[in-house]
Amino acid sequence: MSAQPIIERRRGWCPGVRRPMATGDGLLVRLHPLSGRLTAGQARIIAEAARTYGNGHLDITARGNLQIRGVSEGTFPALLARLEREGLVEPEGDGPNRLTALSPLAGLDPFDHGDPLALARAIEDKAVHLDGLPAKFFVAVDGGGAMPLDAIGADLHLVATGKGDAIAFGLATAEGLHWIGTAGCGRAPEAVLSILAGFAAMRLSGRTGARRLRDLEPGLPEELATSAALAPAAVPQQRPAAIPAGLLPTTSGQAVLLALPFGRCQTAQLDQTAAWSERFGRGEIRLSFTRGLLLPGVAGEHVAPLMAEAADAGFITAADDPRLSLIACPGKPDCASGLTPAPTDALRIAETCGDVLTQRMSVHVSGCPKGCAHPGKADLTLVGRADGRYDVVPHGSTRDMSSLHLSIDEIMTRLLPKTSDALGRAPERSR
């Protein structure tokens, strides 16, 4: 058992079990289960550990990971030992805790092409000993099915095109995914390894200081694509965004996707999900990048009772719930960087302005300028300020400038007319 000394940890690392991050409510311990899958037994162990060694609060992240919050310096060693006994601790080292991200439907999606789970495992096996990759680096492996990973923020996107066994390789940019080439499914792991090794070598030699592929200097992505011997780029078919909650057809029964407001989960809810997975499904829980929990293998006659019990337990079961239009970080006081109580303010917006949000307007409420919960753009981004108000950024991200600063009450008043245009015009007293 090995853990980085707590005194040596610094903010900005991608936390894991061995490398927790200090936050406003204690240490944050992030689990990265392979392929985002847990057995019912593992889920119960995690819930018990969160109650015993943390404050009972859990988060499901936008990469399909699970966080235990409120761990203290005193309880951390026992938590680490408990999770390591259960095989829930990431490998040692400073690289990515888990290299690949998948749709929670991988292996069950009737619209997938090929086997994304097998491809992800082959990539993990080939790159496991690769040095020089930043801890936050990851690869999205997308089977081309019902839950696209386009917005997940990966460094490298692999998408099955459905044209033979061709896998499209893409890089994230401010304008969307930029396709740099293709490879057959059999060659894809080797091509990924070539790109990753090339990027690591560029960093170690000083050719680039970029920590993510999307930040590489012009010409370097093309150099990596050439070294990987990729065939000419093919643009995958456009697909609707993944639904965040509800019923999904699979190759074996139904899958029920249960959402949680902003991914915040209580230990009792995780325990209940474990029980439902055994009672209604096949004893498996899949963590979703939509910040929810997916239960596969649910028979048709069990869908209605499961949905009813989940709604009573505080889960979101309908894709048009206004809370799903909002993204919020833990905010103040749970996060040491938080300047505003982002989840509380986001829920106030959902309760007051639900008619606007059901029109598929996306709102990002960030407790500080870091924008951890959503690094990209939203229809409306609110950035917490030290004075308790928010910088208002229409059609932008937390990195964009704003000359409009409003309280949460003023923001809700302006949303009530069912148009966001009013948020672009501020009275002089609010500037």
Automatic annotation (TrEMBL):
Q: Which residues form the Nitrite/Sulfite reductase ferredoxin-like domain?
A: 20-84, 253-311
Q: Which PROSITE patterns match?
A: NIR_SIR
Keyword list (alphabetical) reads: 4Fe-4S, Heme, Iron, Iron-sulfur, Metal-binding, Oxidoreductase
Q: Does the keyword Heme apply?
A: yes
Q: Name one GO molecular function term.
A: precorrin-3B synthase activity
Q: Which Pfam families match?
A: NIR_SIR_ferr
Concerning SUPFAM superfamilies, the annotation shows:
Nitrite and sulphite reductase 4Fe-4S domain-like (SSF56014), Nitrite/Sulfite reductase N-terminal domain-like (SSF55124)
Q: What is its EC number?
A: 1.14.13.83
Under which main EC class is this enzyme filed?
A: oxidoreductase
**Iron: is it a keyword of this entry?**
yes
PANTHER family the UniProt entry points to: BLR3264 PROTEIN (PTHR32439:SF9), FERREDOXIN--NITRITE REDUCTASE, CHLOROPLASTIC (PTHR32439)
Q: What is this protein called?
A: Precorrin-3B synthase
The taxonomic lineage of its organism, from the top, reads: Bacteria, Pseudomonadati, Pseudomonadota, Alphaproteobacteria, Hyphomicrobiales
- Gene name, Swiss-Prot/TrEMBL: cobG
